[in-house]
Write a structure and sequence with these properties.
seven-stranded parallel beta sheet
C-alpha cells in the first residue's frame, strides 16, 4: 500500500518539490512529479536544470521522445505509465493513479486555497486507510 508523506506550511512549493525529487531520485531511481498546469511544469523544469548546482537530475515530460530512458518525469497530465516508485504531488486534487506508487509526497502551500485542498486530500487518503506521515515545515525551509 502507498505510504503518504504530507509536507505542510510550505512557503516555496517548487523548491521543496525539487528537493524531494532529488532525494527520491537518488533513493528510488524513478520519480513522477504531478503539477497543476504547464506553467508550473515549466518552472520546475527550469529549477531542476539549475539546482542542485553541482549535480544534474535527469528529467523530462511524459510525452518526450526520451521519456522511457529518463528517470524523472514532470508533467501536468492526469495519467501515468511506466515505472512507479515515488510520486510528488503539486496538484490540488489527489492523483487518480497515486496507488501505483510505493510513496507519495503531498506538498501543501500556505495560501488558503492550498491549505483547503491539502486538507481535502488528507481526508481522502485517511478515509481509505492509507498510512499518512505529517511533516510541518513551517520555518524549516
Amino acid at each position: 500500500m502507498t505510504v503518504i508523506d504530507f509536507y505542510s506550511h510550505v512557503t516555496a512549493p517548487l523548491a521543496i518539490a525539487a528537493r524531494l525529487c532529488a532525494k527520491a531520485y537518488v533513493a528510488h531511481g524513478n520519480v513522477r512529479v504531478l503539477t497543476p498546469d504547464r506553467a508550473t511544469s515549466d518552472a520546475l523544469d527550469r529549477m531542476l536544470w539549475l539546482n542542485p548546482a553541482l549535480s544534474f537530475i535527469p528529467h523530462c515530460r511524459m510525452d518526450s521522445a526520451i521519456a522511457d530512458e529518463t528517470p524523472v518525469w514532470i508533467d501536468e497530465a492526469l495519467e501515468h505509465r511506466g515505472p512507479a516508485a515515488v510520486l510528488v504531488n503539486l496538484h490540488h486534487d489527489a492523483p487518480p493513479f497515486f496507488s501505483r506508487f510505493a510513496r507519495l509526497a503531498e506538498i501543501v502551500g500556505i495560501e488558503d486555497d492550498q491549505v483547503a485542498a491539502g486538507r481535502a486530500r488528507f481526508r481522502f487518503y485517511r478515509e481509505r486507510g492509507y498510512e499518512i506521515r505529517a511533516h510541518n515545515l513551517g520555518d524549516r525551509e
